[in-house]
Amino acid sequence: MRRTKCPVCANGLAACRQPWRSVCSACGYEGSDLEPTINAPNAHALIDERAREIGLKELRMHNFNTLLRTIGELKPSGGKLLDVGAAHGWFLEAAQKHFEVLGIEPDSAVYESTARRGLPLRNGFFPEVLDAGEKVDVIAFNDVIEHIPDIERILSACREHLTENGLLLINLPSSDGIFYRTAKLLSAVGITSFFQRLWQKGLPSPHVHYFDPGNLEMILNKHSFIPRRSGQLPTLRFGGLWTRISYTGDYGIVTRGLLFLIIATAIPFLKLLPSDIIYVVAERR
Asked: Fewer Cβ in 10 A, N or C end of the chain?
């Protein structure tokens, strides 16, 4: 169902070239009406989960350690941490050195695989799988919140389940990122596959939101969260790059080879450009 008002500033959303995408001319928020289908019978036929894990793990662990150092500076005494969309459990494993951890994973197949490793995990959706009065000190959304259609309800639920002065960690793709802006330009001249890939169109868990640092802070303020730390994270690392390019099977071998060469050459220079991954750690007001 297409959203008509911006969740950030309540301005009307304008239609775009893509019939599934809309944009706010006031704050720059971008949204889509793409439908998540993570537990559909054929969902995992569209992605090689093992290849995806290999392609993403090195980058994700590097970024998770950066985020946990940041949270640790704000919560030196630790506490209870909830990881929403825990996936393969990497963030839980890293966080349990300093926090009492709990994960939530809605994808039943991924949940079963991760739970077999003995990590504290619940299968279902946030906040429904939590008890009404259940409180935690940190709630983390790592590459998750951009997939959740009703983001305003989710942010309200975060307030309800955080302790006083609890922290909300969000890291997610940025519409200010160099890859996103390049893909958007290519889409405008008819080369659409890269832009659709960034929105994960056709995959079980597509993006339904794209924020930039400014409108992300705005929606957090709207829901009474005060940003305490923010920044950007690397989008790519050389380790796992080939597998990451390959795992959805969207591109032919020649295209994958060209992408690999171009991106591998560009990695040292990407640090000078706006990253496609941003994060914010906000405090419950």
From this structure: N
